Amino acid sequence: MEPKWSNNICKRALLTGFTLFIVLVTKPSSAIEIHADSEVILQNGTGGILRCTFKSSEVVSSSTSVTWSFQSSQLDSKFSKSPYSIFYYSNGKGFPGPEEFKDRVQFIGDINKRDVSIQLNPTQFSDNGTFFCDVKNPPDVMGTPARTELRVVLKESLPHNNTAVIVGAVCGALFLLVLVAVAACIVMKVLHNRHEYEGCTSLESVSSQAPQPRKKVESSLESSRCTSPSGPLQGPVIYAQLDHSGSKNSFHKMEPVVYADIRKN
Questions:
Q1: Which of 53, 194, 205, 261 is 20 to 30 Å from 162 by CA-CA measure?
Q2: Which tens digits make up the pLDDT trace of 196-234?
Q3: For residue 25, what pLDDT band results from cuts at 50, 70 and 90?
């Protein structure tokens, strides 16, 4: 009995040691991260993109594979019970799935850039459901597939895009600010020019009024010259005593006598 018991202990010890060796030597696989849009709304009959990207610590190689699956939200569809593979990509090649998606699914990603997106064209109401994106990049194979809810609706049911409205409002506000700035510059320029013009006219009025007394003097001189006779000017008047009787007792009368005529050159 003792040999059998000892043999069992040896076997268990060897198995435990081998397991520990495998765990310590073998590199454990890391979890791959897969990301996709949570919801996509497309118009019926048009094309749309289902985006999917991944992050992996391993280098992308030919062994990297991508699987797209679909589960319909319609109870009467054969894809409603569980996810069904509709597209598979590996070693640089794509392999379409069932007839319902064979001619409508196209791989448009770049696996070297960790982009594994697909295009669905044209969309149908039967495409309403959940699309799953799963990526394996050995040895990085442990990861949760990303899921995208696809809603195929009529054109009237599409949500309004507020981006164009916001961009238009911003552009309009900027244009209005530019107009206000230009108008302010024009007004300031006009006021500045008017101020300079008024300054010039005031200076001219002052300069024109300053020499007026001189003009008045000149005008008075000219008037005096005009009123003077154009003929010979009369010289100074000399008063002399003239005796008309010749006697000593004669009355002396002062009479003015023009001494000489003086002409002014």
A1: 53
A2: 666 655 555 545 555 555 544 444 444 444 444 455 545
A3: very low
Please state, in angstroms and rounded to a whole number, the distance separating the CA atoms of residues 118 and 131.
Answer: 11
Identify the CA nearest to 150 among candidates 105, 107, 185, 197.
105
Smallest CA-to-CA distance from 71 within 107, 101, 102 is with 101
Per-residue pLDDT of 136-164, as tens digits, reads 999 988 899 999 999 999 987 666 555 55
Question: How far is the C-alpha of 116 from the C-alpha of 146, rounded, in Å?
Answer: 12
Give me the amino acid identity at 238: I
Q: Assign residue 186 a region: left if phi > 0, alpha if psi is -120 to 50, beta otherwise?
A: alpha
For residues 233 and 253, give the distance between their C-alpha atoms in angstroms, rounded to a whole number.
26
Can you tell me which residue has the tokens 């289902």?
50
SS (H, E, C) 103-118: CCEEECCEHHHCECCE
CA 225 to chain centre: 82
